[in-house]
């Protein structure tokens, strides 16, 4: 049996369902009721901070969608989502937030902050967004929209974008506030040429706050001096924005561990990986002979232990995520492998093995 929906009347939201089984057809017409009304627990969220990202800040509630149906009962693929847009844009390019529980959606400070930044609000500047509920009750039906609510808040930026001689601001790479460490940022950035100079911005638009260095080489808001990266290649960039302390380390990555022992490496020497300009990842392809108890390895930079990545120790994280000083990675058997290291997303470094 096949089910499908067709629009019944142009300009109206009534939907007709035709259910066919061999040569028989049953016609079902769905006439929607009013769009659900949206209510918000607050219209003023205040100054948001990353330290409180997990705390609830606003609860949106609405009644379930209702309709009148003629004919047999038919399950409708209901979908609700919140749409968020900068006030005054008339939802021209809204940010969407899925609603997974009918009748309510609670946003944490982190959820709201992400939506505000995506909507185009400037970090550290108070702004207002419009929020409405979009309801879709059939694949070929027009969407239903609720009333519009507003919420005012001052968002923060978890990202600082590096722009300058190597990168335009609109496409700049970024470092990100480290999970659980307010105002402490980290990321890996690949510079395609030597001598690159950059400043940092808390947004990818010209309205953001720009950071450079001062006479004491501290990174400060409005600092006039550029930051220079003298070598071509990948740097680990760490910044404590509270103190202005900047730490940059040029990195070349390798595999290290008992799984590589029979190939002249092991826990004392790394097997060199190569940076791939196309995939933007570090890769190694070759024989890894370790087996049994000799089947473990990690990633480390510059053939030293100061910067090393192993499996995440957090039970809630995905299995392929890595962290500094993480656990060893196990191979099930010896063989020829391609091992890739992806450092493109701060707070979500990961690897693959094929």
Automatic annotation (TrEMBL):
Segments forming domain SusE outer membrane protein: 23-133
Stored InterPro entries: SusE
A Pfam family the protein falls into: SusE
Annotated organism of origin: Hymenobacter aranciens
Lineage: Bacteria, Pseudomonadati, Bacteroidota, Cytophagia, Cytophagales
Annotated protein name in UniProt: SusE domain-containing protein
């Amino acid at each position: 049996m096949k089910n499908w929906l067709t629009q019944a009347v142009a300009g109206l939201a009534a939907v007709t369902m035709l259910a066919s089984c061999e040569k028989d057809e049953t016609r079902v017409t769905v006439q929607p009721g009013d769009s659900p009304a949206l209510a918000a627990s607050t219209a003023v969220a205040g100054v948001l901070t990353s330290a409180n990202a997990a705390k609830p800040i606003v609860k949106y509630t609405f009644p379930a969608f209702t309709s009148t149906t003629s004919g047999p009962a038919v399950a409708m693929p209901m979908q609700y989502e919140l749409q968020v847009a900068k006030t005054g844009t008339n939802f021209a390019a809204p940010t969407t937030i899925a609603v997974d529980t009918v009748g309510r959606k609670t946003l944490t400070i982190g959820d709201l902050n992400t939506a505000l930044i995506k909507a185009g609000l400037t970090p550290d500047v108070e702004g207002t967004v419009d929020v409405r509920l979009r309801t879709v009750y059939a694949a070929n039906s027009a969407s239903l929209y609720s009333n519009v609510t507003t919420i005012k808040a001052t968002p923060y930026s978890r990202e600082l974008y590096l722009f300058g001689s190597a990168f335009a601001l609109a496409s700049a790479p970024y470092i990100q506030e480290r999970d659980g460490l307010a105002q402490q940022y980290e990321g890996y950035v690949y510079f395609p040429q030597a001598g690159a100079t950059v400043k940092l911005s808390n947004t990818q638009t010209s309205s953001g706050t720009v950071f450079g260095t001062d006479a004491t080489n501290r990174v400060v808001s409005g600092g006039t001096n550029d930051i220079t990266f003298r070598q071509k290649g990948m740097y680990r960039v760490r910044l404590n924005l509270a103190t202005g302390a900047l730490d940059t380390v040029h990195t070349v990555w390798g595999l290290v561990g008992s799984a590589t022992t029979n190939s002249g490496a092991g826990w004392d020497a790394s097997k060199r990986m190569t940076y791939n300009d196309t995939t933007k990842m570090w890769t190694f392809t070759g024989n890894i002979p370790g087996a049994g108890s000799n089947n473990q390895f990690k990633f480390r930079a510059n053939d030293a232990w100061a910067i090393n990545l192993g499996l995440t120790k957090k039970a809630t994280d995905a299995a392929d995520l890595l962290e500094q000083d993480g656990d060893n990675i196990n191979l099930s058997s010896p063989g020829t492998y391609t091992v890739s290291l992806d450092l493109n997303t701060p707070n979500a470094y990961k690897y693959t093995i094929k």
